[in-house]
Specification:
43 strands, 17% strand, single chain, alpha+beta, 6-stranded antiparallel beta sheet, 21% helix, 1173 residues
Length: 1173
């Protein structure tokens, strides 16, 4: 201002004469001064170096960050000293302690300072802005709930922090966000209400609970989770940590998983030496030990009240009242401390703080003074971790003396005894400060993490698994013998053990869940296989100690595993319907029970021993009537969340049927729980793998080893019973993993299993032909998004677009890589089209197959079993057709809206339809309406291939004579006033139809007569005339061609082959019992059989077509001359329609797939020109 006044109108020498030179110099002075001021201001904003900490002073209310929202001033050189010099309250005149404000500003701005060990600042990626931003007005960060136990140092109260961008709302994206986010995008401050951690603005408590879902470590962000909530199951050491009160009905058998605290609906669990659970209404309950006996704080004297229960009272289960008003969605347990994550992303901690594992200050047991670490530093009251204010935490885990969390952008933070941030363990007094992990994870998006005694393991959205020895040997370095990092092979890799590194053995897989034990680790791949390494052989399941990564077998090898958990000396795994345990069973924590010799190697003189390989647990869950939602493995006990099948979760599967925020993905913690990672973008480019160049999926997304067409890496894992030579698992039996290890689930990426055990009926006449079509072609199968990305448009693409423009306008540019089914997001709603299509043929059993398929937990039915949209709904649109309100492609997609709702929460789920006239619509007969008699440049098979190149097609054929006979009676149902026809009537009809056909061929060609589609029911049996066009349009491996007569005899074997063809998991025995017990629908009554002369007439007529079909498929069974059970003669003996499995019925008893009562798939009245006539 001085320079400006000096050059002002009243300054000397600024008159009319001779003033210009002085004015110019004055202007230069102004510019110079301004430049110096700007440089100083930039230097000040950047902050001083590590030797000169600063304190952030918030701006006055209403000031914006851009308008100078805060100033900095030099502070005391000691961060802890700065806190203590402000007095016992730890408060500054602006509300929060200076260093807390400093840390908050650093974290929110992406500048997590490396002042502890000279690490350079690392930019913090932040979530992309939500398509529906919430209010940009920052909400105040609330004060934590007062501790029920008086503390000499009041809990710090955070001050309001201006939010530079609107807080993101959950986005319905199942796909990963890009692994790198521009550092210029500021991290949004979590949206908070006046309550401590209230639901997001504008939502009710119930809605917030549904949006938040439940979270458990290890699979936080790689699968959606179930809606709140499920029953708590516990087993292991019979102490208060199990939550089974003595004398109560919950006490039961502690050696197997049984229900505990049955009145609670649980969404998150954590287990260590104590237990913590979060309920569907956001409450936290704890139980078990509240001291640090049994090992102490790594050489620290054991404390009688280390405070990990977070409440006064005894060890029995009780609610943590101090968190009342805070909606908690995840609980985490370290050995002697507890952490909770709220729905709004804030973090609370309590318990032992001897190495700063609380991420904040505690108080000493001796005199109650403030402390950041030390033998008797602890805090028994839940208090917010203010250093993370402004960071939207979505998942985490904890070890003995450390804590790890990640935010919505995938940035990973650690504190306590953990040097993985930069490879160096911080000084003990500084260890409490959260540090951003860099190195190999600097540009990766972490979606799951689990911490053990000596290591942690993280999974990224690209499917990679990264491990690090955090520096702790389980005793904070207090033992006389110093442990060598990676001594037990716990990292599963070579390289620097003290910084994150990728597990190379899994680089060809897509990892979706992880777990870390004392000295071993587990990982689940997208196809549901489990890998293990390190530690003792029986604990890892690899059969030997210090094992490199091996593929586990045992009871789980044919299941699709979703989650894993690792305790100190035992391990757990779970699929949607089954729970497995292995390792040391001294404390009964594996869940296999007492004295069960076929499940464990019993120790002499005891009723328990060692479980050498993954084994089904005993008790209620073994029956398969529960849906497993979460697992946790503690020190000497285990926990699980499970919901009774069919009660509240519908067709839930593991992480299925969830109300979790869209875009979430899910992970399991050895000592805890499940968290959801809300992605806040609409459809990230990383999800693409697209046609059209809008991004490519990460290389790891393929989920297959490079160069391996089978989707499963070569594995020299020891045989599952290898660890039989002693308790240390030292057996040396060897063996290679077979194809059967691959399983069948996981997004189309698994290799189909081989061998008669994995392929029931593969060596029999009636089922072998079906399995022969499944095994070889399905090897190396690609996911929907990969097929879509790689598909090259056909030469006739433009003609196809012209014939059906609404289809190509309605298809997305790319499909989500997170869903197995072809799905995408449109206006925040998941939209899906079929993964499979049962093409027909009508009256051959299509309805029976469809109705049984949709009983599979991962197969969801459409609104109309057989809409006949592709063949009957014309373009241009002429009305509702079968896809209301219009017969266009958007209406067709709407038919799968309910299925999409399920798939939103079950990414492994699929949907499809069974329009049984689709196959016989080829040859120019039907395509978006009747096209017979027209010159068509393109046909229906090519249209469906161009629009759905990934589509899996199923067709079932029946002896055409029998099919024609069945159709004769079926399509007379509307002629109710006419007498029932007999054998003579049928013979007369057959003669007329054959003569009509012969007359057509005499004056034209077979091709034109097929195209004329008359007589319709006779022409439908000419399977070879239609199938050829489908085989030209689709790869052979995408078609499964079955025979009705074989399906009847070996129904279960056929369904098993179909499930493998569709790449969904095998069923449990209870599920098979339910499916096979389904009552056939629309069974026709017994009728007079046809005359022998009629049979001979029709057999002669169809013989050349059958021969062409048999030659086309290379299988003489399609000559229908084998005389096997289920043939024409057998049907005549039992009466038409006695239907063991042919399933001629419709969903509504109105005709095969009809919406109303109009016959097979047609809405209108039936006439000779109609598809269903």
């Amino acid at each position: 201002m001085r320079a400006r006044r000096a050059a002002g109108p009243h300054a000397p020498g600024n008159g009319a004469h001779g003033g210009q030179p002085r004015k110019a110099w004055a202007q230069l002075a102004v510019c110079g001064a301004a430049s110096l001021a700007l440089v100083y201001l930039m230097w000040a904003l950047k902050g001083m170096d590590a030797s000169e900490p600063y304190v952030y002073v918030p701006a006055p209310s209403g000031a914006s960050p851009a308008a100078g929202g805060g100033v900095e001033r030099q502070a005391d050189s000691s961060a802890l000293g700065q806190l203590l010099r402000r007095g016992d309250s730890g408060e500054s005149e602006h509300g929060a302690s200076g260093v807390q404000q400093e840390r908050r500003q650093d974290l929110a701005g992406g500048n997590v300072k490396g002042t502890l060990h000279g690490a350079s600042p690392s930019p913090l990626p932040s979530p992309l802005p939500s398509p529906v931003p919430s209010s940009p007005v920052p909400s105040p960060v609330p004060s934590p709930v007062p501790s029920p136990v008086p503390s000499p140092v009041p809990s710090p109260v955070p001050s309001p922090v201006p939010s530079p961008v609107p807080s993101p709302e959950p986005s319905p994206v199942l796909s990963p966000v890009p692994s790198t986010v521009p550092s210029t995008v500021p991290l949004s401050t979590p949206e908070l209400s006046s309550a401590a951690a209230a639901p997001r603005e504008g939502s009710t408590t119930a809605a917030a609970a549904a949006a938040a879902g439940g979270r458990n470590a290890g699979y936080q962000s790689t699968h959606p989770v179930l809606p709140p909530g499920g029953n708590l199951f516990s087993w292991g050491l019979a102490e208060a940590r199990l939550g089974r009160r003595a004398g109560d009905v919950d006490s039961g058998d502690a050696s197997v998983p049984e229900v505990a605290l049955s009145s609670l609906s649980v969404v998150s669990i954590a287990a260590s030496r104590h237990s913590a659970i979060a309920t569907d209404n956001g409450q936290v309950w704890t139980m078990g030990h509240n001291d640090s006996k049994g090992g102490g704080g790594g050489g620290s004297p054991p404390l009688k009240a280390s405070g990990q229960l977070g409440r006064p009272g005894g060890s029995a289960a009780a609610k943590v009242e101090a968190l009342a008003g805070v909606h908690i969605v995840q609980v985490i347990t370290g050995r002697y401390h507890t952490v909770a994550i709220a729905a709004n992303g804030s973090v609370y901690s309590w318990g032992l703080n001897d190495w700063g594992q609380l991420g904040r200050l505690g108080t000493t047991e001796e005199n109650g003074t403030a402390c950041s670490s030390g033998a008797d530093c602890r805090d028994g009251a839940p208090v917010a971790v203010d250093a993370l204010a402004g960071v939207d935490v979505v998942g985490g885990t904890a070890g003995r003396y450390n804590t790890q969390v990640f935010d919505a952008s995938g940035a990973l933070f650690v504190w306590g005894y953990d040097g993985c941030a930069n490879g160096t363990l911080p000084a003990r007094e500084d260890a409490w400060e959260p540090r951003r992990v860099g190195g190999a994870l600097a540009k990766e998006r972490v979606v799951a993490i689990d911490s053990g005694y000596t290591l942690w393991i993280a999974a990224t959205d690209g499917g990679g698994a990264y491990t690090c020895n955090h520096g702790d040997d389980g005793y904070a370095g207090a033992l006389e013998r110093k442990r060598t990092p990676n001594e037990s092979g716990e990292l599963g890799r070579d390289g620097d053990p003290l910084v994150p590194g990728q597990v190379a053995a899994l680089s060809g897989e897509r990892v979706t869940a992880v777990a870390a034990g004392r000295e071993h680790a587990l990982a689940v791949t997208e196809r549901g296989a489990v890998w293990a390494w390190g530690g003792r052989g029986e604990v890892s399941g690899c059969g030997k100690s210090n094992a490199p990564p091996c593929l586990l077998k045992g009871d789980l090898h044919n299941d699709t595993v979703l989650m894993v958990a690792a305790g100190e000396y035992h391990s757990l795994a779970a699929s949607s319907a089954m729970l497995y345990g292995w390792g040391g069973n001294d404390y009964l924590a594996t869940g296999v029970g007492r004295g069960v010799e076929h499940k464990q190697r019993i120790k002499q003189g005891r009723d328990r021993g060692t479980v050498l390989q993954p084994t089904r647990v005993s008790g209620p869950i073994e029956a398969g009537s529960w849906t497993v939602l979460g697992i946790a493995a503690g020190y000497q006990h285990s926990l699980a969340i499970a919901a009774e099948a069919g009660k509240g979760v519908g067709k839930a599967t593991g992480m299925a049927a969830s109300l979790a925020p869209p875009g979430a993905s899910v992970t399991a913690n050895s000592t805890d729980n499940v968290a959801i990672n809300d992605s806040t973008d609409d459809i990230p480019a990383a999800d693409a793998g697209s046609a059209g160049g809008s991004g490519t999926a990460p290389a790891a997304d393929a989920g297959r080893p490079a160069g391996d067409s089978g989707g499963i890496a070569t594995d020299n894992a020891p045989a599952t019973d290898a660890g039989s030579a002693g308790d240390d698992g030292g057996g040396n039996a060897t063996g290679s993993a077979t194809e059967a290890d691959a399983g069948s689930g996981g997004g189309g990426r698994g290799k189909a299993a081989s061998g008669s055990a994995a392929r029931p009926g593969a060596d029999t006449y009636h089922a072998g032909y079906a399995w022969a079509q499944v095994v070889e072609p399905q090897q190396g199968g690609k996911s929907v998004d990969e097929v879509w990305a790689e598909y090259q448009p056909h030469a006739k693409h433009d003609a196809l677009v012209a014939a059906s423009p609404d289809v190509f306008e309605g298809l997305p540019e790319f499909f989500s890589s997170r869903t197995k089914n072809p799905c995408w997001f449109e206006n925040r709603t998941l939209r899906c089209i079929p993964y499979y299509h049962i093409l027909g043929v009508s009256k051959c059993g299509t309805t029976d197959i469809y109705n049984r398929l949709v009983m599979h937990p991962h197969v969801y039915e459409s609104n109309n079993k057989g809409p006949h949209w592709w063949d009957e709904c014309p373009w241009p649109v002429k009305g509702a057709c079968t896809a209301p309100p219009n017969g266009d492609f958007q209406g067709y997609i709407d038919l799968f809206a309910k299925a999409a709702e399920h798939i939103m929460h079950d990414p492994a789920g699929i949907t499809g339809e069974a329009s049984s006239n689709t196959l016989t619509s080829a040859r120019g007969v039907y395509m978006r309406g009747p096209t017979m008699g027209k010159e068509m440049e393109v046909g229906l098979p090519l249209l469906m291939r161009e629009s759905s190149p990934f589509l899996r097609l199923i067709a079932i054929f029946r002896n055409p004579v029998d099919r024609y006979f069945s159709a004769f009676y079926y399509y007379r149902w509307w002629k109710k006033n006419e007498p029932e026809p007999g054998a003579d009537d049928f013979h007369a009809e057959a003669e007329r139809d054959v003569q009509t056909w012969q007359a057509c061929v005499a004056r034209s060609s077979v091709a034109k007569c097929v195209n004329a589609y008359n007589p319709q029911q006779l022409v439908k049996g000419m399977y070879s005339e239609f199938l050829g066009e489908w085989l030209e349009a689709f790869p052979r491996e995408q078609l499964l061609l079955l025979r009705n007569e074989d399906y009847k005899v070996a129904q279960r074997e056929h369904l098993h082959a179909i499930f493998r063809f569709l790449d969904v998991r095998d069923l449990t025995e209870p599920e098979w019992d339910s499916m096979m017990g389904m009552k056939a629908k629309n069974v026709q009554k017994k009728r007079e059989g046809m005359h022998e002369k009629t049979r001979k007439l029709l057999e002669d007529f169809y013989a050349p077509f059958n021969k062409a079909l048999a030659e086309m498929l290379g299988d003489e069974r399609f000559l229908w001359q084998d005389g096997e059970p289920g043939s024409l003669q057998a049907q005549n003996a039992t009466g038409e329609g006695s239907q063991t499995a042919s399933g001629e019925g419709s969903q509504a008893a109105a005709g095969e797939g009809s919406q109303a009562a109009a016959g097979e798939g047609s809405q209108a009245a039936i006439g000779e020109g109609s598809q269903a006539a």
